[in-house]
Write a structure and sequence with these properties.
Largest sheet: 3 strands, antiparallel
Strand content: 5-15%
Number of strands: 5
Low-confidence stretches: 162-168
Mean pLDDT: 86
Oligomer: single chain
Helix content: 40-55%
């Protein structure tokens, strides 16, 4: 756990200038995804402590059950990878209640695109008045707050009819801006769910505590299993 946290601090120190350069207009990188990003959040702060304890306890438990090192390593890797995938998708966003707001497309720095023509997809880039917030989800809504799933008919001329790689309509450079402006002119706004930046450390402590608890539970099971064999 100490070594994992030490490497986390070294990595955070090394990546800090890169993050600052990106913030000043440098090219995007994995370090520009913000503190809540998939790569940044579990490798910074105190979460490496929880993940290191959980990974160690998981490996010991797998070894105790299989009694063979290679299968135990494979099982540990598979479960740990699954946990790394599931946690940011379904667990971390729900550790604290999310906040909600509705903003204009421009204020939310949103980009309107098409999943499959004419289905509308809205990707928000910011939460007005909440710098550094973690955007959980965003969707287009009308003035009544009802979800908008398709683009307005009047906005269809702003889109070419070329096919994208997945069967949808391909947007060429310049069309995204035209589509954004057209959709916004029809009163479509962006409804966002987010975790404010102030939740960063509470989420860090909660996630770390959760994995430490899992590690203790696995350790307790191992001791129980060993004592049962001795008796």
């Amino acid at each position: 756990m100490a070594v994992a946290e030490a490497f986390s601090l070294i990595q955070a120190w090394w990546a800090a200038p890169i993050g600052k350069a990106v913030g000043l207009g440098g090219s995007a990188s994995v370090f520009s995804e913000g503190r809540f990003g998939w790569f940044v959040f579990p490798t910074h702060g105190i979460t490496p402590l929880g993940y290191a304890a959980f990974g160690f306890a998981l490996g010991v438990t797998a070894g105790l059950l299989t009694r063979r090192p290679i299968p135990a390593m494979a099982v540990t890797l598979a479960i740990f990878a699954a946990v790394q995938f599931v946690t940011p998708l379904w667990i971390r966003p729900n550790l604290f209640p999310t906040s909600h707001t509705t903003a204009t497309i421009a204020a939310a720095e949103a980009n309107v695109s098409l999943r499959v023509n004419p289905r509308l997809a809205v990707t928000a880039g910011a939460v007005p008045g909440q710098p550094g917030a973690w955007i959980i989800s965003g969707e287009g809504v009308n003035a009544a707050g009802q979800p908008v799933r398709t683009i307005p008919v009047a906005c269809e001329p702003a889109i070419s009819h070329g096919q994208g790689p997945y069967g949808g309509t391909a947007l060429v450079p310049g069309e995204s801006t035209a589509l954004n402006n057209c959709v916004a002119s029809h009163g479509i706004r962006v409804a966002e769910s987010y975790q404010p930046a102030s939740h960063y450390w509470p989420l860090q402590w909660s996630e770390t505590g959760m994995f430490l608890a899992l590690a203790l539970a696995l350790a307790g099971y191992c001791f129980w299993r060993l004592n049962r064999r001795r008796s």
